[in-house]
Amino acid sequence: MVGGGIAGLASAIELALAGAGVVVAEATGAPTERFGETLAPGVLARLDRLGLSEVFRSAGHLSCPGTAVCWGSDRIGHNDFVLDPHGPAWHIDRSRFELMLRARAVQLGVEVLPATRVVDVEESGTRTVAAVRSPSGAPVGTRTVSARWLIDASGPTAWLARRRDVGRVVIDRLVALVRIAAVAGSFTAQTLVESTPEGWWYAARIPADRLVTVFVTEPRSARALISEGWAGWHWALGATRLLADRLADAGVTAEGAAFRVGSIGVSRLSRVAGERWLAVGDAAAQLDPIAGRGIHDALGDAGHAARLVAESLRGGRPAIAEFGDRVHARFAEHLTQREGWYDVERQWPAAPFWRHRAAGLLRARPAATVR
């Protein structure tokens, strides 16, 4: 397994439950706070398959009853999950969630190698030999792992697919400017979403009395907003109609807050599977966060990929091509929905962010092979 994030660990758990031996090489030493804190309704069914639904429920994550949206007009709309048969959405502690997956994988006998990168792969008969390396000075050093299958869960960089000369179809490039701050007062359990001329915002309460506030915009605007610290970001937040007052009422301040910048490349691999390898999660396809389905779909892909690999290990002939078709079809559906969401917002047709997304930038560009 190349990568030990959510998609990689979920795939490892599924394979271990099927009786396969699994090694996971994860570049980070321990899960870190990452962009992406929302789980879509229905995720508990996917966690139950991993034997984790009860653990998840007791871990202090926060249920989300719906979304309050200011998009396309000055009026606030609502998308509630009260009647959704799949239940509520969830606001999670991302690090705690990944630690839960890692603990479950280890419990099932998965060998997890933290702070370890796959640095080379080569074919050897019916197996692939991967060289993995820990940081300089670590006791593991460099070792080789012989595997019948490799799963690329290395995120949008798609390290393994790149080694296979697989191109990536890029639809859009966005930047997320993220602040995680303490909440001193009360704050809604809903997710707040608001469009502005330069992009769109969302805010959500997450465990441990914290609030994540994110601005999604174009790279040029992002650079301008943080060119002199984060003063521009705070000014832009103060100009919002829905978020500013609610955050002020909740006692959210910049003191002690953590800031980070995340790159969002709405994209997919031109091919997500090949001879004895598959890509899952963001390595296979990275969605616009407006969909709020990244983790949900990563868990689904992990299950599908693991079943195919397990079938192959048992001597069967799994329909690998169908896995790629499914990923590409879902991504195409996402683009159609995304174009519809952005098309609703017509308050600022001359603003670059909205003009670009209404002028064909949502259509696929030719795939480029990253080497």
TrEMBL record:
Homology family: Belongs to the flavin-dependent halogenase family. Bacterial tryptophan halogenase subfamily.
Name of the featured protein: Tryptophan 7-halogenase
Source organism: Microlunatus ginsengisoli
Ranges for domain FAD-binding: 2-317
Organism ancestry: Bacteria, Bacillati, Actinomycetota, Actinomycetes, Propionibacteriales
InterPro entries in UniProt: FAD-bd (IPR002938), FAD/NAD-bd_sf (IPR036188), Flavin-dep_Halogenase_NPB (IPR050816)
Gene3D superfamilies: 3.30.9.100, FAD/NAD(P)-binding domain (3.50.50.60)
